C-alpha cells in the first residue's frame, strides 16, 4: 500500500494586527510625517504595514514586529506631546533602542538630563543631542563621569560628535572654563605639499571636522567670539607640548595617528578640573609604516587604571548612511580572513 504524502507543514508565523489610538489629531499628523514618510521608514525597517484608521494606527505583520512598531509609535508620540520634534534620527534611535518608557532623573542641576531608562540628553545652544545606540549611551555617561575617557571604533559612530556636544554642554553649565579640540596634522595617505597662508590657514583643513561639530551646537556669532577670546581653541596636537590644561574640556580626535611619545605628552597635559577625551579608529592609521600608534599603546598601558574609561564601537553603531555600516563590515570581514 503506497504511503500517503502529506502536504508540507506551513511554518510561516501568523500575521497580526496591533492597533493604538492617538487622541490629538494634529500630533498624529506630525507623527506620520509629510506624505507619511515617518510611517514608511518604520515599515521599511521592521517589515510591517502601518495603516491609519481615523485616530488609530494599525501595524500589520508578524506579531513581534507589529508590537515593536506600536511601541516605537507610542514613544515618538510622547516626544511630540512633550513639545519635541520627531525626525529621521529620532525614529532611528527608537528602532535601535526599544525599551520601557524612561523615568527622568536630574544630574546635579546641570543641563544634561539622564534617564533611568538608559536615555541621555545633551543640551547645547542650538540643539538637543541624544545618543542613538546603547554603546553611544554608555560612552556619553562615561564622558560625564570620568576625567579621562577613550572612544574607539570605526568612522560614523559619533565618537567625536558626542564628545564635542558634551564639552559644549559642560561649558554651558559652568563645569569647565574652556574647550580645547586637537588632532594630529597627519595626511590621510596623500602628500598635500606646502599649504599657502599663515599657520591657521595651514592647519585648518586638518581641523575642519571639529569646526563642523561646533557649528552644529553653537550659533555662528557666538562661536566666532568664543574662538576669538580663546574660550574655544582648535589646534594641532604638536601645539599641546608644554601646556597644562586646567578647567578645560579637551578632545583629541583621530588619536590613532598620534605617536607613542605624542600620546604620552598629550595625556600628561591633564590639569586640575579638566576632562579629557581621546577618540580614534584603529583601522585608519596614517602613520608611516613601522611606526606604532600611540592609541594602541594607551589601550595596552592604561586599560587597568581605575577612573579611565574605554568605550568601543562597532559597525552596528554607525549612524551615517546605512551603506557606511555595510562598507565597514565588508572591510572587517576581509581583514579577518
UniProtKB/TrEMBL annotation:
Cell location: Cytoplasm
Keyword Cytoplasm included in the entry's annotation: yes
GO molecular function: ATP binding
Cleavable signal peptide: none
Gene3D superfamilies: P-loop containing nucleotide triphosphate hydrolases
Residue span(s) of domain PhoH-like protein: 129-332
Principal subcellular localization: cytoplasm
GO cellular component, one term: cytosol
Transmembrane segments: none
Record keywords, A-Z: ATP-binding, Cytoplasm, Nucleotide-binding
Family stated for the protein in its record: Belongs to the PhoH family.
Name of the protein described by the UniProt record: PhoH-like protein
Amino acid at each position: 500500500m503506497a504511503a500517503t504524502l502529506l502536504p508540507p507543514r506551513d511554518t510561516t508565523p501568523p500575521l497580526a494586527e496591533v492597533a493604538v489610538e492617538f487622541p490629538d489629531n494634529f500630533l498624529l499628523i506630525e507623527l506620520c510625517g509629510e506624505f507619511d514618510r515617518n510611517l514608511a521608514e518604520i515599515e521599511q525597517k521592521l517589515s510591517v504595514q502601518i495603516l491609519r484608521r481615523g485616530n488609530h494606527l494599525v501595524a500589520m505583520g508578524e506579531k513581534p514586529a507589529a508590537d515593536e512598531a506600536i511601541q516605537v509609535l507610542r514613544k515618538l508620540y510622547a516626544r511630540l506631546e512633550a513639545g519635541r520634534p520627531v525626525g529621521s534620527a529620532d525614529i532611528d534611535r527608537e528602532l535601535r533602542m526599544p525599551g520601557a518608557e524612561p523615568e527622568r532623573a536630574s544630574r546635579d542641576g546641570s543641563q544634561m538630563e539622564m534617564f533611568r531608562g538608559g536615555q541621555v540628553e545633551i543640551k547645547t545652544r542650538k540643539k538637543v543631542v541624544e545618543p542613538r545606540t546603547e554603546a553611544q549611551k554608555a560612552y556619553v555617561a562615561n564622558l560625564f563621569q570620568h576625567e579621562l575617557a577613550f572612544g574607539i571604533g570605526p568612522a560614523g559612530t559619533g565618537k567625536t560628535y558626542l564628545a564635542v556636544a558634551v564639552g559644549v554642554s559642560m561649558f554651558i553649565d559652568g563645569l569647565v572654563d574652556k574647550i580645547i579640540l586637537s588632532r594630529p596634522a597627519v595626511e590621510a595617505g596623500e602628500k598635500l605639499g606646502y599649504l599657502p597662508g599663515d599657520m591657521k590657514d595651514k592647519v585648518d583643513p586638518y581641523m575642519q571636522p571639529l569646526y563642523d561639530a561646533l557649528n552644529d551646537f553653537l550659533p555662528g556669532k557666538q562661536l566666532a567670539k568664543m574662538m576669538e577670546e580663546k574660550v574655544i581653541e582648535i589646534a594641532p596636537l604638536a601645539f599641546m607640548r608644554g601646556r597644562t590644561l586646567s578647567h578645560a574640556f579637551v578632545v583629541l580626535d583621530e588619536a590613532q595617528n598620534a605617536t607613542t611619545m605624542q600620546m604620552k605628552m598629550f595625556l600628561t597635559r591633564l590639569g586640575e578640573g579638566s576632562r579629557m577625551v581621546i577618540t580614534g579608529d584603529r583601522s585608519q592609521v596614517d602613520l608611516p609604516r613601522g611606526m606604532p600608534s600611540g592609541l594602541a599603546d594607551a589601550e595596552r598601558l592604561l586599560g587597568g587604571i581605575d577612573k579611565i574609561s574605554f568605550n568601543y564601537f562597532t559597525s552596528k553603531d554607525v549612524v551615517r548612511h546605512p551603506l557606511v555600516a555595510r562598507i565597514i563590515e565588508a572591510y572587517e570581514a576581509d581583514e579577518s580572513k
